[in-house]
Amino acid sequence: MLRITNLDKRYGNEKLVLSNLNLEVEGEAVVSIIGASGAGKSTLLRCINRLVEPTSGKIELNGLDLTKLDRGELRRARRRIGMIFQGFNLVDRLTVMENVQSGRLGYIPLWRAAMRRYPQEDIDRAFHLMERVGIAHYANKRADELSGGERQRVGVVRALMQEPEILLADEPTASLDPKTSRQIMELLQSLAVEFKLPVLINIHNVVEAREFTQRIVGMRFGRIIFDGLPSDLNEAA
Ligand code: ADP
Ligand code: ADP
Fold this sequence. Notes:
It is built from 8 helices and 10 strands. α6 links the parallel β7 (166-170) and β8 (199-202). By secondary structure, the protein is an alpha/beta fold. A 6-stranded mixed β-sheet has the order 6-7-8-3-9-10, sandwiched between helices. The model has no long low-confidence stretch (mean pLDDT 92). It is globular. Bound molecules: adenosine-5'-diphosphate (ADP) (2 copies). Residues 91, 93-94, 110-111 line the site of one adenosine-5'-diphosphate. One of its GO terms (cellular component) is membrane. Pfam families: ABC_tran.
């Protein structure tokens, strides 16, 4: 489970971008984080994966406090966090299989991924996951030959290759057409259940958030102003 306690973040000497934020996410839940641009949604995800340093507060992932790690520990901890991006962040000239394996390698020597020979179990696991999301037949295609929806599926498989304990998705459908967006949201929803994963999704499309997630967290000026069921959102929105 993810437990965030009294999280504050300010960049430099600016005002607080996250202010005394508290959030708990347990098990196979898909949580949408909504809020106007500048509300602090991305900063929140970046604090969790420690791309930015929280100013104060605690972020615990299954008991490990992510705010108290040295470099080496942080690198290992990041492997426990699967990331899915708006722009997919694939390496275009590598194949789907190579991109997917870079999840296994922990992203760090990304450009080396192509030179690695992968252990058979990693190849098997990759095929299994690629079949699950419908891209196994593209394993040897270059990433830039795929459509947006297919590319995002590669991103999802790459994240799952890490055997993550949580998935963070930053506007995962913002580059996709409405139909493909729904497919990706449905996919994330069913994977959360299958893999018993908490999934946090930053999303600006409130309609999609309501339809495809069980819980909505609404942010404004760095604070949580709503946390509940989509059906209860009306009054607060
Ligand atoms: P959202 O994802 O909800 O649009 P962000 O987390 O991106 O919100 O931004 C929250 C606030 O933090 C905004 O005022 C933004 O300008 C500011 N901010 C974001 N990133 C940085 C940064 N690297 N340096 C300084 N200010 C930043
Ligand atoms: P090219 O074949 O286009 O001349 P190189 O293979 O010589 O490119 O690599 C140029 C630089 O790009 C190198 O510094 C390398 O680290 C980086 N690089 C190579 N392949 C990748 C990749 N797949 N992803 C990210 N960076 C890469």
